[in-house]
Design brief:
The complex is a heterodimer of chains A (296) and B (401). Chain A is α/β, with parallel strands linked by helices. Chain A has 2 domains: 10-121, Rossmann fold (3-Layer(aba) Sandwich); 152-295, Succinyl-CoA synthetase domains (Rossmann fold, 3-Layer(aba) Sandwich), CATH 3.40.50.261. In chain A, 33% of the residues lie in helices and 21% in strands. Chain A is built from 9 helices and 14 strands. In chain A, the strands form 2 sheets. A 7-stranded mixed sheet of chain A has the order 3-4-2-1-5-6-7, sandwiched between helices. In chain A, helix 3 (76-88) runs parallel beside helix 4 (103-113), helix 6 packs parallel to helix 7 and helix 7 (222-233) runs parallel beside helix 8 (267-276). Chain A starts with 10 loop residues before the first strand and ends with a helix. Chain B has helices spanning 5-13, 31-40, 76-86, 143-149, 167-176, 182-200, 241-244, 254-261, 280-292, 309-320, 339-353, 368-376, 388-400, and strands at residues 22-25, 45-50, 61-62, 70-73, 90-92, 101-102, 106-111, 114-125, 130-136, 154-158, 203-215, 221-225, 229-232, 265-268, 273-277, 299-302, 327-334, 359-365, 382-384. Classes of the chains: A alpha/beta (296), B alpha+beta (401). Chains A and B meet through helix 4 and helix 5 of A and helix 4, helix 9 and helix 13 of B.
């Protein structure tokens, strides 16, 4: 099992004809992911890579192909529209990779999604990977931009706001022969669709996930909220790491959401919350997998 | 992006927020006309305010010994004298750091008798993903201090983005601030304008501190924004050409401006170990692990998750312009990118820039064996790190030795 997506999940790609979207749609196809449709308004009727049908609208793509999840690669100015088109089509899952979406657009999107069935992951995230059974985890479901081959099918859930730091954790696990159930990048923006806590709850309910690596960073209080819930409800070992202990206050560290403002969102406070919740804290990013294995 | 007080006030005034009358100047020669105009219009006093992107200006000190980056003056002569003394000088405040900031512009305004100082801000509440209005009776103070010591003195009103700030919410804040009578409606109008400024300008923060009740020329109380600060959402600047034109490059670190031209996320710090990393989270974690092993990071530098050769080369040039840098740590997780391409880029950049400092490189990911071989065969003294921990320890040791 896994969370959010399975190897047979049917995925459509919004923005499949742009260079970024095309490149990663191709990589997902090569990984064995069920990329069943592309959406680019005005290019309906064409084929991507000679086999994936392109549609003008998400609703039509979903209806014809049975896609239930979407990966969004459209430019920032059009991303809010793309997300809500996916929501309107009633998809189960929308994963928005796009970086640089105005915060006000995401505030509106989040408000418009209230009461709707669709789950949003991201934006500004690497996406989701549920590794497959094949060589280099081939045959899994890869939605987004993560390198597929670093994964290995197994029982650890990985959750992070960052891209390359997620790959670091995944690679540490795989190098030690330990596989993953699902790896989720929730994104580095201050307003996102799915929080640390949301993903922790999913991992906790997934019988195939036996341990969790949760990676956070400075800014906001999402890690603290997840920690408080873990202390009360989580039955699985959790290892945490927080990036940004050396970041100066008041400066945005690359991610729009990675900022200590008004004394809030410091790494020290998050690490303290982790410890208080019984989460094992990795002393350095080099020992995330090692810390989890010791704990298990 | 941050803007100056006078610019924030322009954005607010256009949306119906009352501000003191005044004008900004960049030369002392422009001061007499402005001051005379304000006095002629009935001002009893005027205030001369340094325009820099840092707080604590009033209590700041110029490096030439002059006290106060904000000064109330009773005559045109005094205002002109003050303007001459401030312009072109370096002001040090608790927010500028010891180097201070050069004052290139002043705002000269009518100073009205203040009866009450309040605090008002609009910002994003990350917990609810909605805008929140924060207000307090403790104006003119550091709001973080108020929040820490007397949190009950801060009122918050969450705004539903579907309808915006409703008038009843604005009135509720006014009443909570102790305002009565005509001032309630006046404050509600001002609040609506401040919220609109936040929304329409795609601001990350609009802060009015202090928001003041002052005695107007006719003796009646008025509410106005005595000071104003605005931070804009960088991601939204593409739809605000007019605000983008307000960017003041003199207020930004030259290296950071240079880096932004190459779409690099660079933030200069005080240490001596430069780092060059792909991805923001990994870049922060790299700084942290340098510190963990006893070193001091010289910068945050994210060349992007993909890390192209052009960006790596540009990044090398930028970190080498920082005279404090004594060693460099490159940490690249080449997930999709070919590590050999990155390695080739690093070798080219080192040769092109004639780098003499110790360089530790940790490569991981796609085609990493070939990448490491390229580094080893380059003839350059590049120290290879196997893991983040190994690389961090090696770079710290390189400086110590």
């Amino acid at each position: 099992m896994s969370i959010l997506v399975k190897p047979d999940t049917k995925v459509l790609v919004q923005g499949i004809t742009g260079s970024f979207g095309a490149r990663h749609a191709k990589l997902s196809l090569d990984y064995g992911t069920q990329i069943v449709a592309g959406v680019t308004p005005g290019k309906g009727g064409q084929l991507f890579e000679g086999k994936v049908p392109i549609f003008d609208t998400v609703a039509e793509a979903a209806q014809v192909t049975g896609a239930t999840a979407s990966a969004i690669f459209v430019p920032p100015a059009f991303a809010a529209d793309a997300i809500l088109e996916g929501v309107d089509a009633g998809l189960d899952l929308v994963v928005c990779i796009t970086e640089g979406i105005p915060v006000n657009d995401m505030i509106k999107v989040k408000r418009a999604m209230e009461g709707r069935r669709t789950r949003l992951i991201g934006p500004n995230c690497p996406g989701i990977v549920t590794p497959g059974e094949g060589k280099d985890s081939h045959g899994g479901c890869r939605i987004g931009i993560a390198p597929g081959y670093i994964h290995k099918k197994g029982h650890i859930g990985v959750l992070s706001r960052s891209g390359t730091l997620t790959y670091e954790a995944v690679w540490q696990l795989t190098s030690k022969g330990v596989g993953q159930s699902t790896c989720v990048g929730i994104g580095g923006d201050p307003v996102n669709g799915t929080s640390h806590l949301d993903v922790i709850k999913l991992f906790n309910d997934d019988p195939d996930t036996h341990g969790i690596i949760m990676i956070g960073e400075i800014g906001g209080s999402a890690e603290e909220e997840a920690a408080a819930w873990i202390a009360e409800h989580c039955s699985k070992p959790v290892v945490g790491f927080i990036a940004g202990a050396t970041a100066p206050p008041g400066r945005r560290m690359g991610h729009a959401g990675a900022i200590v403002s008004g004394g809030k969102g410091t790494a020290a406070a998050k690490i303290e919350a982790f410890r208080a919740a019984g989460i094992s804290v990795a002393e350095t990013p080099s020992v995330m997998a090692e810390t989890l294995l010791k704990r298990m | 992006m941050n803007i100056h007080e006078f610019q924030a006030k322009q954005l607010l005034a256009r949306r119906g927020v009352a501000i003191p009358t005044g004008s900004d100047i960049t030369t002392p020669e422009a001061a007499p006309a402005i001051a005379q105009q304000l006095f002629a219009a009935g001002a009893k006093r005027v205030v001369v305010k340094s325009q820099i992107h840092a707080g604590g200006r009033g209590k700041g000190t110029f490096t030439n010994g002059l006290q106060g980056g904000v000064k109330v003056c009773a005559t045109t002569e005094e205002a002109v004298q003050r303007a001459q003394a401030m312009l072109g000088q370096v002001l040090v405040t608790k927010q500028t750091g010891p180097a201070g900031r050069r004052v290139n512009r002043l705002l000269i305004e009518t100073a009205l008798p203040i009866k009450k100082e309040l605090y008002l801000a609009v910002l994003l509440d990350r917990v609810t993903s909605r805008p929140v209005i924060m207000a307090s009776t403790e104006g003119g103070m550091d709001i973080e201090e108020v929040a820490a010591k007397t949190p009950e003195k801060i009122v918050k009103e969450s705004v539903d983005p579907a309808v915006g700030l409703m008038p009843f919410q604005a009135r509720r804040i006014a009443v909570a601030l102790g305002l009565r009578g005509d001032l309630i409606a006046a404050a509600a109008k001002l609040l609506a304008g401040v919220y609109r400024t936040w929304l329409e300008c795609d601001a990350s923060l609009v802060e009015i501190n202090p928001l003041c009740i002052v005695e107007g020329p006719d003796g009646k109380d008025i509410i106005l924004a005595l000071d104003a600060k605005a931070g804009l959402d960088d991601n939204a600047l593409f739809r605000h050409k007019e605000i983008l034109a307000m960017r003041d490059l003199a207020e930004e670190s030259p290296l950071e401006v240079e880096a932004s031209k190459f779409a690099l996320n660079y933030i200069k710090l005080d240490g001596n170990i430069a780092c060059l990393v792909n991805g923001a989270g990994l870049a922060m974690a790299t700084m942290d692990i340098i510190k963990h092993y006893g070193g001091d990071p010289a910068n945050f530098l994210d060349v992007g998750g993909g890390a192209s050769v052009e960006q790596v080369t540009a990044a090398f040039k930028i970190i080498m312009k920082d005279p404090n840098v004594k060693a460099i740590l490159v940490n690249i997780f080449g997930g999709i990118m070919d590590c050999n391409v990155i390695a080739t880029g690093i070798v080219a950049a080192v040769k092109e820039t004639g780098l003499k400092l110790p360089l530790v490189v940790r490569l991981e990911g796609n085609n990493v064996v070939a990448g490491k071989q390229t580094l080893a065969n380059s003839g350059l003294t590049i120290i290879s790190g196997d893991s983040m921990a190994d690389a961090a320890q090696k770079v710290v040791k390189a400086i110590a030795g």
